[in-house]
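Journal club prep — side note

Before the paper discussion, L.F. wants everyone to see what a predicted structure for a comparable chain looks like in token form. Sequence:
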Amino acid sequence: MPRQDKSALQRVVTRFVDSETARAIEAHSRAWRVRCPHCAFERSIWDLGGIRYGAGGRTRMLARCPQCGRNGWHKVEKAVDFPTDKARALPLVWLILSVAVAALILSAVLAGIVLKLTGAA
């Protein structure tokens, strides 16, 4: 499958981590395969615009197959040649914590503005 541009999620996550972690995230996401239950067409999570890094297990996702056009529960599984290298998890932890803290601060600011405009504060 030809390389495409990154999705918005992929751009945001890979922008805030070092290049080694970004490469590991992309390699792991490309190794997670999504297979159509009807025609067995296969593509990677990365090609769908998603990220699956540090995940485990087997799951399914409801999707339309671009090859046969049918909807179904597509299997999500690790590829046979799944990469064994792991990048440091600390940059991802910092990214997740930063987003959570920013969301809390934004919520507090918005609540303060609403209270001030309504005269409750």
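L.F.'s comment for the group: The beta strands are 32-35, 42-44, 59-64, 71-78. Keep this in mind when we get to the figures.
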